[in-house]
């Protein structure tokens, strides 16, 4: 009997694997996901704009602009066709370009004013911009290209569809980093205002050297808007001292939003351009750091305090040998400190950078014309030549910006997949704020993770909450936008755009422990089910919430709460376990059985065994039916932990249940388990409930422990143990199954 019972366990494992796989497919069935499929080739290169006020998602594609409903991106949408003229396409082909390149790839969509968007496209290697009337208020369905006001897009949109660019709109002016010419020689940071423009110096390799623009953002310095700064994030080439192999570094550069350039010199050129290096590295064992130098994506996480967003960078190594990815987080405080620190200086290009220790002119180069400078200068045009000359020759700060904790918050060095995109949501949980990272990969998966910093040990724990496959076929994810208001992600690839809810608490099961162990800061157990967590004060009624993201301590949070009443079916002549695990391991447990009005203590024998997990009944008899009460005693404190009603079924009835399961077999993910062991839930047989019950039984930890558990409880002999070990790996090491299983199972990995 004992071996048979253990074997039943192993059979159950197989079923669990199947259930996990099927859960993976339910993303779609649960209505958590909607996919907008664009026309063939429309999203080869594209831009996306989230418009939360008018509840739409604007996508600029190839010769087309879509306006999708934010709530349901699959709802009927609006679109504008905006192809290049035949003449432009003809010219483009004449220049020897390929047909697919000779189209209008809309690379930039920005809010322009309250009624219009600005959209710019490559225009078959002849960039163009247009204003798109979107209306406001009752005109929400409007989408109209102002076709009689098409402007040149030079300096706003690159020529080449593949060319990297980054833009920000601020007070009606466009700040953009891009290559401005056909041959991609002239990289520049531009500002295009109503009548003016300002840019980096042409051909100045000190300012920009083969940059790849990744992102930009306007961040205020203080309450004076005249001090607002625009930050650009990009990579560029740096020649090493020997002048040989050029390395790639990540930079953060900044300019004053109100920069007017100089009057006699630096006319229409930035008078405030400064830059420094962004570091993301891990210390190596022999003092040699591994640097992640190539910025892939950047996310500016805005907070209530607009002046101090958190900056997240997704980096990869540039090494040909070692491939890895890291996410680093930066404080504005540290970024500002670098810009307010010493300037860098070197005598010749083949010398090392040193601290510039000469006199720094006033007003400090790189500062804005504002009250901070005593209100002495109303515009940078009034700055002394000395200041302009200094900033022109010293654009580089000596201090690099180190990440928070001086290390990545997340590392991915396993190889195999590439990480491409990053978005971050700030979530308030019972035990503090968490930054939930959504990381796009090159194989359609979005990883949902949190990282927890342990101050005492100075370690970072990475918790993978979910792996969301957002497209049915593997495709690189090229954009992730997040709507905090709607709890939705909008994930783009060349195939289309997927909308997905950032949480699906119900997926973690309805038990308190499941919910708690998931450690998802969006979710908490509300006494009935795992549901969206709302901080106190928002829905003050819902006070009774169990959540512990930091430690995932389900025992502390949930025991004594869960399973206070339970119905368990046992099969005659078969065995079952009546679970009872008290709050504390130190507690002693006593079982009582209530039959009719009598309540008496259960005395163990060779058929009824008390285990650390509960009461094990072997070879159940009809007379065992009744209400079992588990009481724990600790420090004189007696408490009822569980009341289990045991009903005993005869085998005929069980056969019936089994066959019922076979009837609706096929591909249905809700196939009932093959046998009713260890306990058949009272609810209509749902695989998830059952999975949960089983997980509770084996204590949520490594499945391997079940083997030990079996040994302990049933005293499996050595010979039999070998047999069991041979069976165990059957599903656990099927690579596909394991990967898919991870879609559901929370995994906890230790970072460094
Ligand atoms: C999903 O949505 C469809 C249509 O909107 C609805 O019929 C179906 O019941 C929903 N399914 C779930 C699991 O909510
Ligand atoms: C917005 O800009 C467009 C294009 O320049 C212009 O036609 C329109 O009048 C502007 N709307 C407002 C409200 O200023
Ligand atoms: C540019 O024009 C817009 C309106 O068209 C105005 O709101 C904005 O202040 C102007 N910007 C500058 C720098 O003059
Ligand atoms: C249970 O086992 C006993 C003998 O061990 C047998 O007499 C009885 O018929 C069995 N009951 C069922 C329902 O199989
Ligand atoms: C217990 O139940 C399972 C499933 O119904 C069955 O395969 C097994 O033979 C039963 N064991 C005993 C001892 O009756």
Automatic annotation (TrEMBL):
Q: Does the keyword Cell wall biogenesis/degradation apply?
A: no
Chain segments annotated as coiled-coil in the UniProt record:
none
UniProt cross-references to SMART domains, sorted A to Z? IG, PSI, Sema
Sorted UniProt keywords: Developmental protein, Differentiation, Disulfide bond, Glycoprotein, Immunoglobulin domain, Neurogenesis, Secreted, Signal
Any GO BP annotation: axon guidance
Where in the sequence does UniProt note compositional bias of the Pro residues kind?
A: 671-681
From the Swiss-Prot or TrEMBL record, what is one GO molecular function term? semaphorin receptor binding
Quote the protein name from its UniProt record. Answer: Semaphorin-3E-like
Gene behind the chain: sema3e
